[in-house]
Fold these 2 entries.
Entry 1:
Amino acid sequence: MVVTPELLTLRGIEASYGKAQVLFGIDLHVHQGEVVALIGANGAGKSTVLRIIAGLLRPLAGEITFRGERLDRLPPHDIVSRGISLVPQYRRIFGTLTVEENLQVGGYVHRRNPRAIQEMLDEVYTLFPALARKRRTLGAVLSGGEQQMLSIARGLMARPILLMLDEPSMGLTPKLAVAVFQDIRRVAQSGRTVLIVEQNAYAALSIAARGYVLENGQIALAGAAEELIHNDYVRKTYLAA
């Protein structure tokens, strides 16, 4: 097995919302070029992990390093410029903007480099041909699946080294959720490193190399995705098997 460089590392991360502590000593790492799934029940703290990595919430304790550089003291825009992009829950696209205008917003960090933005537009339209066909369509009239596709593509416009996805299947029908995970697999095959938070444990683990199970703000299990899929506790608790 080829061991790739460790890209992202969380050590001893603790976090709270006000007086309520929600993360307790999280250790997690992501290697370059792999897909890692973070699964768990609603309220386990999964989205909080992504918010802390993105700089939207400061940890109480611990440290985060990305490509060897300390991240947890940087503001969100500096974290984006270093190569981390977060695709949030509920899609949050701009309904009054066209598909292409939404994508251009995603490339804001490269606003002084029009050539880079055009290169990324070309890339996302290659990855998502449906968006290319609807580039002049307003975001508000897209289907739920198309809006999620656009949200992922907008995250790619920042040219991330690490793409983080927060509950990409939320609010989608099972058929549309399958299509979204096919999109994510395609993004990973394009060479991006992906960290995905998802309640649909089986779908997330099916496209991941490794996984973590988060329970009550702590890592309960970690290992190869295939091993977690066949783990009796994971199957009974998260896979309804």
Entry 2:
Amino acid sequence: MIGIRVPASTSNLGAGFDCLGLALDMWMEVRVLEGNGGPIYTGTVEGLDPQDEILSTIVTPVVPERYHLEIHSEIPLARGLGSSAAAAVAGYALRQLLQSNAMDRDQVYAAAVTLEGHPDNAGAATYGGFVLAAPRPARLAFNRGLAAALAVPQAPIDTKAARRILPLTLPREGAIQQASRAAALVLGLMNAEGDLIAFGMDDQIAVPHRKQLIAGYDSAVAAGLAAGAFGVTISGSGSALLAITTTELQQTVAEAMAQALTAAGNSSEAVMPEVSERGVGVLE
């Protein structure tokens, strides 16, 4: 009958905490198909309970009789790759299509942020590409010579737990440093300036507290930098690690980080996604 496709995303990218998101070429696909029954989940979402899963709770009330949802995802859950934001964006986009046969991206974005609370991931999932989550989300130009390299552990991290360990206040000097690094990060990613990327990916708010949740973090960062990354950080709230490097070194960097995590007892996979310039879209 109808379907929606939404990309994964990595957020923060270092000092862009809760502000910067980057869409990645890993997808969640949701279809409304003929046939009675509850939602069917495959891929990384296999086994989810429809009562607890946000996409289903958004869409099921407007699914016509004698139809059902089929949800397939490539996006790892609880790894800091925007799975919950993708589900919220997919849910609201599909709900709009079922109710009015049209999709308003701005409304989808606003609803997803209200429900899920991560404007950086929701912005990238909705609009695609490199997004600044301002009051009016802005698409930025991610330099084509750069690539995102990931090391994705088998062990997840609960996003709420990762939020709880963050400090409630930040010293003035820390706030100034973070603002400077975030500005440098944007310029570095747009212009492929490695020194600005390195400075901007050195987060002062979340990473110092969250890295203790990821076994082998420091050795993986060192391995990624030695392999040619400009910077390495936690993707979102983790557990995946994100490096920014050149397109030529993407695989080398991802494998170096994954091997370092695995050697520390944190079994991990190297993942080399493209940046997706497309956000949520209608499946043919």
